[in-house]
UniProtKB/TrEMBL annotation:
Transmembrane residue ranges: 88-110
Domain of life (superkingdom): Eukaryota
Region described as Disordered: spans on this chain: 1-23, 143-172, 188-222
Ranges annotated as biased composition (Low complexity): 143-168, 189-210
Keyword Transmembrane helix assigned: yes
Name used for this protein in its record: Uncharacterized protein
Length: 290
């Protein structure tokens, strides 16, 4: 809307200016020749078209700046994109920081756990002293040769080398002493590490022996427990067998006694029947007598 209003305003202004001309009416000059009038009209039309194009481009650029850059459309998709971009940036910075700090941490850990791997850097004084000693040795060899020509330049170069020779010897002695101390320290550390390893091995062996003893004791206890359980099971089985045998004997006795009782009952029934028959016969005889 802003761009359309600005463009309409600019077009209206340009149309008015084109109809009137680039100058107001009171400043216009009229010539007698028609050639001058036609040239002035063509120049005014070309200038108005150029101005209109320039104004349109400026208005479109201003509108784009206002709508897209300064006031972008804050919709859901745009917010999600912003959040994603922020997360990606955070990840990038964290990973870059970790990658930058990793070598230093790695080196510090290695130096802390493995002191023998530390590099031995020679100082500059030792290197200078070694160079001076080499120069002095070269000068001595040149002086010992029979065909050598002693020149003032050679003597001037030999004097500082001879002066620097004792300093070089002292520096070399210090370096050797320091290296020996480092070797002794390393040997002491290695011996301490070996002793600690031996102690650890002894402790491990003792722990293994104790574990074996405990296992043997547990195995013995479990064996005793199982033996007791087996004995109890055997005793229970024997008791159950004895009970079954007694029950069977009682049943057999009961079966043996049942026929005798039945015979006695039958005998009693027969005796009762005989007695009844005798009574009936006596009654009949008594009735007959009557």
């Amino acid at each position: 809307m802003r761009s359309s209003s600005i463009i309409a305003f600019s077009e209206g202004a340009l149309s008015r200016s084109s109809s009137v001309g680039p100058f107001p009416p009171k400043y216009t000059t009229y010539d007698s020749s028609s050639y001058s009038n036609s040239s002035s009209s063509s120049s005014s039309s070309s200038s108005s078209s150029c101005c209109s194009n320039v104004c349109r481009r400026i208005c479109s650029s201003i509108d784009w700046l206002l709508t897209e850059c300064l006031c972008p459309p804050f919709d859901l998709s745009f917010q999600q994109r912003l959040r994603q971009q922020q997360r990606f940036l955070l990840l990038f910075f964290t990973l870059s920081a970790v990658a930058a700090a990793y070598p230093f941490v790695f080196l510090s850990v290695i130096e802390a756990h493995y002191p023998d791997i530390r590099p031995v850097h020679l100082p500059k004084a030792l290197t200078a002293a070694a160079a001076a000693a080499a120069a002095a040795a070269a000068a001595d060899t040149d002086a010992d040769t029979p065909d050598a020509t002693t020149t003032p330049a050679a003597t001037a170069a030999a004097t500082p080398a001879a002066a620097a020779a004792p300093a070089a010897n002292e520096a070399a002695g210090r370096h050797k002493f320091l290296t020996r101390q480092g070797i002794n320290d390393s040997t002491d550390a290695a011996a301490a590490a070996a002793a600690a390893a031996e102690q650890q091995q002894q402790q491990q062996q003792q722990m293994q022996q104790q574990q074996r003893k405990k296992r043997n004791q547990m195995q013995q206890q479990t064996a005793k427990h199982w033996q007791q359980l087996l004995l109890l099971m055997k005793n229970k089985q024997q008791q159950q067998q004895q009970q079954q045998q007694t029950k069977q004997q009682q049943l057999n006795l009961a079966q043996q006694q049942m026929p005798q009782e039945q015979q006695q009952i039958q005998m009693q029934m027969q005796q009762q029947q005989q007695q009844q028959q005798q009574q009936q016969q006596q009654q009949e005889a008594h009735h007959r007598c009557l």
